Amino acid sequence: MNDKKALSVCITASGSPEALLQCVKDCRKFADEILIAGTVDSEETQKEAQRLGAVFLPYQWEGSYSKIRNQFMESAVGRWILFLNSEETLPSPFPVRELLENPNAEAYLVGTDFENFPTAAPVQSLRLLRNREEYRFENRSFERIPDEKICGILDSHLRTFRKNSPTLLAERERRSLLLQEDLKDLPQDSFLQYMEGLKLLNQEHFEESVVYLRKAVSRLNLEALYAPHLYQCLARSFLRLGRLEDARIVLDEGMDNFPWYTDLPALRAKLFRKLGQYDEALQDLNDSLKMAGNPQIAVPEPETKVPELLKALAELYEQTYNYKSALAYWRRFLQACPEQRAEAMDRFCGLAVKTSSVKELKALLKTALKKKDAACMTRLAEALFKHRQYALLLANEAALAPVLELPGSEATGIFTACRILQGAEPETGDINRKDDRILIAVVKSCWFCEKWQEALHAIEEMRSSPGCRLTAGIFLRLHGLLTGEALWNDTDLSEEESEIIKELHDDFLWKGQKAKAEILLLLLLKNRPADFFADLAHQWAADLPVLQRILQSLTDAGEKETLKCAAAWRLIHEGRNKIAHQVLLLGNSQPTQELERILWARHFMKELREWVRKSDGFYPAAHLESENLQKAGCSLLGFYRSLLFPTGSRVQTITRANRKSASQIHREIGEFYEKNNQPGEAICAYLKSLQWEPKNSRSLAAALRLLEKKPGLLTRYADAEWFPEGHWFFRREDFFRFIRGMAHLQNLEYAEACDCFCDEDENAPCHEIFLACKTGILWMEGKGGGIHLERKCFTRPFSEFLIFLCGLYAAHCLKECSHTILFQELTEREIKRITNSVKFAAE
Amino acid sequence: MHSMGELDRLLGRLIKEPGNARLFYQAGLMLCEANDEENAELYLRRAHELDPADKKILFNCACLLYFHAKWRECLPLFREFLKQEPQNRDALEKIRDSLYQLGEYDAAEKYAALVNQTREAAPQNER
User: Which residues on chain B are in Cβ contact (under 8 Å) with A645?
Assistant: First the structure.
């Protein structure tokens, strides 16, 4: 063998002569030898290829693709061989030579992206390998070197592209027939079963593919290159057949065998989403993302990449009504995958508008403007226009107009359309009537103002524009419907009709013209509005009869539930509790537990505050303001400063510390000790903080948390020599009964807690707190409404502490729900809201 | 970890040598390890009575009292220890924290300042 030649490229010629010559030209950049075998129709092409340095091997089709490769291997003199097809397009650069330097590599996978072809087997990518005698391909159809004969296979991370062509279709057909022959010879061969199953999967013959893929799994050698892909294929077939449990079993087994193969958890996340097991889906996606984010040394490299996972996470968060997180993931997806920015921006803008997050849109626009990326700005402008962010677009017209690349219209057209839709009178002079966007805007603005005649003229104008003809036809029918001059009798809407009607329906709602929107809604509901019923529910959330009509148009229980959740989310988000409650009761299904709990918490707190107010007691404001917040003494402040600011404190710090209450100072000391890993001292400090201010929720939570870990410390501290501080607890035993009672309350042990709050000295100041605790427990047990207390009981400390305690309880109940991803953001927001409302102002 | 057999042997020796402070000290430590903190305290206190000058006994006895939240009682022992090792930061910190827990903030502040001084003097010993 000639040592000077490092790489021989072996090209199977098929398809057009131009493609072959292009392929040869591309290969000249990195190959030392180019061999061609196959059918070359024109002699001229052959000569030209030879002139470029290629050598033609004698070729005769002998009914086996392996034979061709093996023949190449016999003739090639390079130390490495790369197999290509003449129809493949190579990316430029194609850094194949640097791979040849790796002494540990025996072969590399070089993948191919086929046009409109779902899945190719990784085995087919094994086509850059060392030229050794022992490496010979087997099978007539899908050439393969048995796994036991070759090791040291790496992924090259190089990919080629192959367009659809008659030759490719013929090749697939031929391979398919040859596979049948291979299977006749070796009916038990796992690889052949896998290839047949994969072929059937790609043809969407799922039932049949399952039969072959299952057989392949049953005889699988786990070391085989295709093994993880086989599990993925079988699971996909099961998923498409709706056999979710079978898919789950396959994926579990696959993940046990190949924990590094990202495709499997990503696919299982899809399955979990279908099953409504969102937390499990989130776990799998996060695991996949972690794996995909690390440099992949796995062979074959999984197909699922970071952008797809980001998109899946965004969709999962959106599906579970966690819109902030969904926005964050769409933003990351936009950065990671600029090729798909049109879809991502549309989804991002839609979501931002839905959640009234104009800030998010402005930030995105700012980033795009900063980057001066014309394509990005164009997509964003289109998305903003679609989601009716006309004001935002117009505000940035000067920066955007020069860079927009809008096909078939002038950049200024989009801004003119914005102005018209915002209500500006269209001026003949500045309107380019050939711009479809403007024409549509004119019709819409006429409909908004009920200028029916003008609208009709504008529609006529649309009909003369080739790009608008179809829309004009639909607009004309809608015009009749809106004016009441005609009916829309068809029951089935085409996809195009549906989209246009939905858009117009949204336009009318945006304009606040509900009556017109409702006419269109009826039309939409005649069809099964599966694609956008959740959107409709969100839009019509506050209109119960309409919502009910949308609900009735659905037949699937899951869709009905989604509709209720979408509507209720909006209402709860906007604080419209009563109607949200009514929405949750619509239909026959059980109300969603998480939403019901939020409504319960709001109702509970509202009732409690009302009860306090009606009893003529002190009615605390949203933020409690304690009159008893005592400032820390000089001695304590001095110690605090020496402890927390050992290198001396600045004037600002001193001033700030001087304003702090004794309770706050002790809490911060507690935090210092906790950070210093001194839990005993930390508990002591938190307890001191509570002696000064029993409502200090942070100190209470920290003390109870530490005491739960080290319960013995409470007894030790109770027996120690110390004197209660502050003015609430004169006797140590009262204070410890208070702490023990609060610990029981945290565990919802009402009877035990009540015992702790009894037998207090009625003249002691803590009596008010204990009374509040006992009253709070009755409220927690649902007996709040029936309590009658003397008016004199409703002192400020009593009312404040009662509301504080019940607020903690409501937040605690909500926390029980927040461990699941469904409505997590809404639940967490409510917890924060309640906790803030019961905190005392200085905390 | 010492076995109960070892502790028994040690207690046997103590009967024979009731004036041996080191034996009481070792027994105290063993009881500490066995989580019998109450008896550990008795043995360490006895060891300290027998040999009040022993630094190790003094420090461990003080620490045990501190961990039993006997802050008032541990203070003189730590102070005694400081006479022998005035820069010992552990002892200074324990006094500082005992005083804080007793609510004697003025005195606690003084010891906090001393801790800071030792930290500045020997920053390499920063924990």
Answer: none
